[in-house]
Amino acid sequence: MEAEATTEATTEAAATSVLVVGGGLVGLSAAMFLAGRGVETVVVEKHPGSSPHPRAVGFTPRTMELFRAVGLGPRISQQPGGLGPPRRIRVESLAGAWFEETLWTPDAAPASGIEYSPCNNAAIAQDRLEPILRERAVELGADVRLNTELLGFEQDLSGVTASLRDRDDGSAYTLRADYLIAADGHASPIREALGIGRAGIGYLQTVRSVLFRAAFDDALRVRLEEAGRRGFRQFTIDQPDLKAFCGTFGDGRWILMFQDDEERDEATLKAMVTKAIGRPDPGIELIANGRWKIAGLVADRFASGRVFLAGDAAHALPGCVRNGTRGVAVGCRRQRETGPAADQAAASSARTAAHRPWNRCRRSASETRSPDRVAARKYWRCSSKAEQKRAADTKLPKPRMG
Ligand SMILES: Cc1cc2nc3c(=O)[nH]c(=O)nc-3n(C[C@H](O)[C@H](O)[C@H](O)COP(=O)(O)OP(=O)(O)OC[C@H]3O[C@@H](n4cnc5c(N)ncnc54)[C@H](O)[C@@H]3O)c2cc1C
Q1: Which of 127, 166, 280, 349 could disulfide-link 50, Cβ–Cβ 3.0 to 4.6 Å?
Q2: Where in the chain is the domain with CATH 3.30.9.10?
Q3: Cβ-based neighbour number of residue 313 at 10 Å
Q4: Per-residue pLDDT tens for 163-172?
Q5: For a pocket test of ligand 1, which of 1, 29, 43, 46 has the largest count of ligand atoms closer than 8 A to its C-beta?
Q6: What is the CATH code for 16-75+121-197+300-354?
Q7: CB-ligand 1 contact for 150 (6 Å cutoff)
Q8: 362 touches 323 (CB < 8 A)
Q9: DSSP output for 59-81
Q10: Residue 46 Cβ contacting ligand 1 at under 6 Å
Q11: Once rounded to an integer, what is the mean pLDDT over residues 271-299?
Q12: How many other β-carbons are positioned within 10 Å of the β-carbon of residue 5?
């Protein structure tokens, strides 16, 4: 991707006020917030729709407040009041022995129990939420172009000229915008083209997630439903040869996640899922699987001229600390409350957040030996400079779908 800044103003008329690159959660949220305020907005997303591999599932009351402000309140079902974020329990397997509740953030202060918000947490899979945001963005007047890729851009004093390609028919065209929002994900070709570096704790570990359905027998189904009513939707699998996280999206789909640096075939993945379920033949259907790098990295700057970074393009935060799991909450809040023109002060506060996991995880690890804390200790250990470099040099294959 090419980025070029010139000092000469151009006379070309703006075709839109804001061009958002990336139709993920953050790009679509930006489009809703802008269009909701009457700002002419075009979103381009290179894929024809949402990834079938949902990532996020938990959204904070603050995110729900922001969605509510653009009329989405009733369209996204929220957790009943007082249930809080999904609860997690350490287990041998879903069908085996269940031990104690474990905490998302081991050293977090206990919640006050006082509700200050009209909203609650929401548990909705990313691939279910994105279409809702897309539809709302369009209703509010945004022009959302799927299967459309940004090839390059140039900026000058009065705007940005973007080169786009319609992937349906291969045609290329330019679009002039007053501003460009780069919501193009953690690898952000736009951020790279601008030469904006990132700092933070860096690479932590590589995790594989396996999306599956299973034909649970009646006894197990009843057990899991009863647990779900009490808020337990996440399970830390603790077996001598299987340490993993297992969670439900609440729609029949489950995810198994574990630290993984190896290629694995479907038979191996099915065997691992079977072990996590704890039944001999649970009728598993593998839907998708992929590997992710967990990292804490924040862009050195959130803006360059008329281009603004948003979401994972601006900050990738790991999930071992409070708020760290909530990439979307941070992404949306920063756009809504500071606007895309987030300045150096905002960048510096996010940078502090990207370093925070290091300190929190390290402290947690030294306090007790619970599985979460053992995991935290691993995060700490694998964060040496050498490991970060090795990880940075490692190119992962794209998640394999279907
Ligand atoms: C396993 C996992 C679990 C998670 N759980 C949670 C959670 O519970 N809660 C939470 O808040 N967060 C969670 N997250 C983080 C959350 O998924 C991310 O913070 C969020 O997806 C970031 O959204 P985004 O829009 O910034 O980027 P992305 O979702 O990565 O979207 C970027 C989009 O840009 C598009 N794009 C890239 N380049 C171009 C181009 N040149 N032209 C056009 N389009 C382009 C891509 O196709 C993509 O659709 C989780 C992440 C993972 C991996």
Answers
A1: 127
A2: 87-111+205-293
A3: 30
A4: 999 999 999 9
A5: 46
A6: 3.50.50.60
A7: yes
A8: no
A9: E-HHHHHHHHHTT-GGGS--PPT
A10: yes
A11: 94
A12: 14
Residue nearest to atom 53 of ligand 1 (CA): 55
- pLDDT class of 270 with cuts at 50, 70, 90: very high
305: DSSP letter: T
Least confident among 142-156, 195-209, 328-342, 379-393: 379-393
Q: Is the pLDDT of residue 182 over 70?
A: yes
b/e for 86-116, b at 16 or more Cβ within 10 A?
bbbbbbbbbbeebeeebebbbeeeeeeeeee
Ranges in the chain annotated CATH 3.50.50.60: 16-75+121-197+300-354
Helix (H, G, I), strand (E, B) or coil at 241: coil
Measure the CA–CA gap between 379 and 198, rounded to whole angstroms: 19
| Predicted confidence band of residue 54 (pLDDT cuts 50, 70, 90) | confident
> 95 in helix, strand or coil?
coil
Mean predicted confidence (pLDDT) in 116-121: 86
Q: Round to whole Å and give the CA distance between 70 and 121.
A: 17
Q: Which atom of ligand 1 is nearest to the CA of 27?
A: 25
* CA angle (36 as vertex; 125, 13 as ends), nearest 5: 115
> According to the model, what pLDDT value does residue 107 have?
62
The alpha carbon of 365 and the centre of ligand 1 are apart by a number of angstroms equal to: 29
The radius of gyration of the chain from alpha carbons, rounded to an integer in Å, stands at 22
- The reported pLDDT for the residue numbered 79 is 76
pLDDT of amino acid 123: 85
pLDDT at 362 exceeding the cut of 60: no
Identify the helix (H) or strand (E) that includes residue 207: strand 198-214
- Identify the burial level of 13 via C-beta atoms within 10 angstroms of its C-beta, where 0-12 means exposed, 13-18 middle and 19 or more buried: exposed
* pLDDT of 148 higher than 80: yes
* 45 touches ligand 1 (CB under 6 Å): yes
Query: What is the fold, at CATH topology level, of the domain defined by 87-111+205-293?
Result: D-Amino Acid Oxidase; Chain A, domain 2 (3.30.9)
d(CA 157, CA 160): 9
Residue with tokens 């601006």: 314
Over 70: is that where the pLDDT of 293 sits? yes
- CA distances 59 to 40, 64, 127, 369, Å, are 27, 7, 13, 28
